[in-house]
Recover the amino acids of this structure.
């Protein structure tokens, strides 16, 4: 059987990704947009407050601190591992090729799950927005399919085009939340401003575990900064900076906005308000403190927030697919780069087609776009990315034990070990509260939880097959920066 060697994977005359296109802010836009701050706040924070109490803002800070600790070892390793394969390359270097190949498959499935499920949210959010603004009911499938085409086009264009689009959309969604915050702060809240949300007696309660589960989920995708290192300017500096900017911004912004909406109703009244209408909590607050016109804008910006998240994940998936095609693990055609836009356009077309199949399949089965397409597809993807974060944290000290380096023990041992413990705790919180994420039966939840480990085991099987049938591909897996040794700008 013929094999593809690293030198044969892509001809030296082939187009390459557009190097030097992205600065710190550009990469941060991709990462923060993937998290969809407005959607997370308006759609999920009310549930965190309802189930966890007024200490919910502190939960977002705790999650942010945990992921900042993870980022210490993660970004330190990014200076030594140049691959565009991000997670799987790091894990391969630290834990070996079988685990790395398992991680690669899990990353591919995980990121696809995180994106494709969100087309259900796009359909339901747009439907709700149209109904709220015009009183008209529209079907969700055409909206989702139109979104697939729009996002596919965004991924087809150059990466700097995507960064500019995400910059505009991110300013819109954060701006409307800051407008709400300004209204609440200027008017002094419903009953004055209070710092009780950060008091120990409100943070150290049983409900905090639920808040932390929601909070960790709100950061999903932040680690994708390293996927863009081949297109970054001065990646040794840009990628770590973008990672810390994204984590710091999300942690502080989530905590601040959650605190603001509590002040809009009052410490004693907000839980009752969230119980009465969790989906309307933010809309009610901005109507009261800014005006109905701002609530209408918020409806619109939730749709654009979802689109921004979809485009960010679509770009990340395309680059993972590109890296694996260049590795020889996926078909070579998926590694083609557009000669003018310098984008992994074939990977993007394949991802769009996969999304269309899944979305249409759920519609044909009569599934609810939010309760089933979003939650059932998104949740295993989220768990898969959490597992990848955990494996990457474990890989950091293992890698630095085997190579000569000048990095300090705090970055290479202490921070990764602490992050491993904290991330394992986060996974435990999410899994034990999985019903809050899915609203599904125990049987369905068991399947959703089991998908990530099942995919990883399939990946181990793929590693075994590659070692026997395609030894050159197996031996070269994640050894060199994907494509950089053979591509010329």
């Amino acid at each position: 059987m013929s094999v593809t060697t690293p030198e044969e994977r892509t001809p030296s005359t082939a187009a390459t990704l557009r190097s030097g296109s992205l600065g710190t802010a550009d990469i941060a836009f991709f990462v923060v947009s993937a998290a969809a701050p407005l959607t997370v706040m308006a759609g999920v924070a009310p549930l965190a407050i309802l189930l966890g109490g007024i200490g919910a803002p502190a939960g977002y800070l705790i999650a942010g601190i945990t992921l900042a600790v993870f980022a210490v070892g993660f970004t330190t390793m990014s200076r030594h591992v140049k691959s565009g394969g991000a997670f799987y390359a790091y894990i391969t270097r630290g834990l070996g090729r079988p685990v790395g190949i398992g991680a690669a498959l899990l990353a591919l499935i995980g990121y696809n799950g995180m994106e494709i499920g969100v087309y259900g949210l796009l359909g339901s959010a747009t439907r709700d927005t149209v109904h709220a603004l015009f009183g008209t009911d529209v079907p969700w499938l055409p909206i989702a399919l139109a979104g697939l085409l729009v996002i596919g086009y965004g991924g087809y264009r150059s990466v700097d085009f995507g960064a500019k689009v995400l910059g505009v959309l991110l300013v819109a969604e954060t701006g409307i939340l800051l407008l709400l915050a300004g209204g609440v702060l200027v008017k002094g809240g419903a009953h004055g401003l209070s710092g009780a949300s950060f008091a120990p007696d409100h943070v150290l309660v049983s409900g905090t575990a639920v808040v932390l589960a929601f909070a960790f989920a709100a950061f999903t995708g932040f680690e994708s900064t390293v996927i863009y290192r081949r297109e970054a300017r001065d990646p040794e500096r840009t990628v770590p900076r973008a990672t810390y900017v994204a984590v710091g911004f999300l942690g502080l912004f989530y905590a601040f906005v959650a605190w603001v909406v509590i002040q809009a109703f009052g410490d004693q009244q907000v839980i009752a308000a969230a119980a009465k209408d969790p989906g309307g909590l933010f809309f009610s607050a901005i109507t009261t403190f800014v005006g109905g016109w701002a609530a209408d804008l918020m409806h619109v910006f939730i749709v654009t927030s979802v689109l921004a998240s979809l485009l960010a994940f679509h770009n990340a998936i395309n680059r993972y697919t590109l890296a694996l095609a260049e590795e020889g693990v996926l078909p070579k055609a998926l590694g083609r780069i557009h000669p003018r836009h310098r984008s992994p356009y074939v990977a993007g077309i394949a991802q769009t087609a996969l999304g269309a199949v899944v979305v249409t399949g759920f519609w044909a089965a009569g599934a609810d776009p939010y309760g089933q397409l979003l939650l059932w597809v998104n949740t295993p993807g989220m768990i898969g990315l959490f597992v990848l974060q955990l494996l990457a944290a474990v890989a950091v000290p293992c890698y630095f034990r085997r190579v000569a380096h000048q990095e300090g023990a705090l970055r290479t041992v202490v921070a990764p070990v602490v992050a491993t413990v904290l991330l394992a705790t986060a996974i435990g919180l999410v899994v034990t509260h999985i019903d809050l994420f899915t609203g599904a039966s125990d049987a369905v939840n068991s399947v959703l939880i089991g998908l990530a480990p099942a995919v990883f085991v399939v990946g181990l099987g793929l590693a075994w097959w590659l070692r026997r049938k395609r030894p050159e591909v197996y031996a070269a897996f994640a050894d060199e920066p994907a494509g950089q040794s053979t591509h010329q700008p």
User: Anything to note?
Assistant: The mean pLDDT is 85. The domain at 6-476 is CATH 1.20.1740.10 (Amino acid/polyamine transporter I).
